[in-house]
């Protein structure tokens, strides 16, 4: 019915910590919409993301995370996020490691990529907000053990922030067999810039 269930905080928290997927999901949605400025709620969300396998993480959690750095295609109606909660969550995001960033990149759809209105846009917004963003992206781009699609998404975000300075990184990835990185190089050489949202 597209209405938020009327549950108490304790009821929603209990559901969130349930081992049953549908109960967990209900708890997640209710907590996000009814308690957006409670630090421990975000702590629960972040710990869940860090500790679970990608297959166990609902994509909507990545979208929820993106509400802190924000992007122009978020449709949110409800209690605003106060300065304290933004600072708290930003600090927790800055505790992310390379593996956490890899997880975020894995949520980028291979077909739709990073574009307006996609989950890739939310993943990019989170990654771009990290203080160690460039270090993580370069490590991932250079990690030959990772799926090429993950490395390519990292390369696009890196190029988005560094433009022509990223050309050597893109060329190196292209030399390792990435057709996509080669296309990014050609586009940047022709146009002088790159923007996945243009």
Furnish the topology, listing elements before pairings:
Layout: H1 9-16, H2 21-34, H3 39-51, H4 59-65, H5 83-93, H6 98-106, H7 119-128, H8 133-141, H9 148-162, H10 167-175, H11 179-191
Helix pairs in contact: 1-2, 3-5, 4-7, 8-9, 9-10, 10-11
Structure description:
By secondary structure, this protein is mainly alpha-helical. The protein folds into 2 domains: 9-144, no CATH class; 145-198, no CATH class. Helix content is 60%, strand content 0%. The protein is built from 11 helices and no strands. Helix 4 (59-65) packs across helix 7 and helix 8 (133-141) packs across helix 9 (148-162). It is elongated and about 55 Å long. The two termini are 36 Å apart.
| SSE pattern, N- to C-terminal | HHHHHHHHHHH
Q: How much of the polypeptide forms β-strand, as a percent range?
A: under 5%
Q: Name the average pLDDT.
A: 96
Classify the secondary structure makeup into a structural class: mainly alpha
Largest sheet: none
- Structural domains: how many: 2
Q: For the record, give the distance between the C-alpha atoms at the N and C termini, rounded to a whole number.
A: 36 Å
Coarse morphology: elongated
* Rg over alpha carbons: 18 Å
Helix content: 55-70%
Number of helices: 11
Low-confidence stretches: none
How many β-strands, per DSSP? 0
Question: Quick summary of this structure?
Answer:
The protein is an all-alpha fold. It contains eleven helices and no strands. It folds into two domains: 9-144, no CATH class; 145-198, no CATH class.
Which tags fit this structure?
198 residues; mainly alpha; 2 domains; 11 helices; elongated
